Amino acid sequence: MALGLIILGRQGSGKGTQALRIAERFGVVHISTGDMLRAAVAEGTELGRQAKAIMDAGDLVPDEIIIGIVEERLQKEDVRAQGFLLDGFPRTVGQAEALAGFAGDGLHLAINLDVAVEEVTSRMLARGRADDTVEAIERRLHLYETETAPLLAWFAERGILAVVDGLGTEAGVFERLRQAIEGVQQ
Length: 186
Ligand code: AMP
Description:
Blueprint: E1 4-8, H1 15-26, E2 29-32, H2 33-43, H3 46-56, H4 63-74, H5 77-82, E3 84-87, H6 93-103, E4 109-114, H7 117-127, H8 134-157, E5 161-165, H9 170-185
Parallel strand pairs: 1-3, 1-4, 2-3, 4-5
Bound molecules: adenosine monophosphate.
The site of adenosine monophosphate has 16 residues, from helix 2 and helix 3.
């Protein structure tokens, strides 16, 4: 069966790095909405123009925009054949509900890569990305607690949430993720 995975976690939790490893190990298509939006900004598309100021402020792109992008991406042949790993989506309950509507039975596991706020803040300041100003970091963490954290309960209620401790070495964390994913394959 083609796996349908979601990785959740605060910005700076290491989920981008781990997502690449998961995609490689399990052969699923890695779909990062942040990467898609940054590519649109770099290309100067209409979407990129709309998204840039929102992203720079650390705010969320409106649900109707991001939902349409993900829905379209999930219909592509590579995703149908190989399955997917969503990274950075869903970020709101509205996005999760839309996803459940178009992915339905194809959603197998939502993993919360769990790292405390203090730890992610210092990691983000250290990585020095253009949108990693102190204000934008605080704004994103605040949005994570208010908009994204409720998703954990939403997935738990549907019986597909796994919480994985995100502290430790990259390889150590990956090992825990691998075990969680192999659990749903059996
Ligand atoms: P990320 O690389 O996942 O941290 O995303 C970078 C930025 O893109 C975020 O701070 C948001 O402004 C925007 N973004 C990415 N994914 C979403 C999403 N699912 N919903 C709304 N905005 C998003």
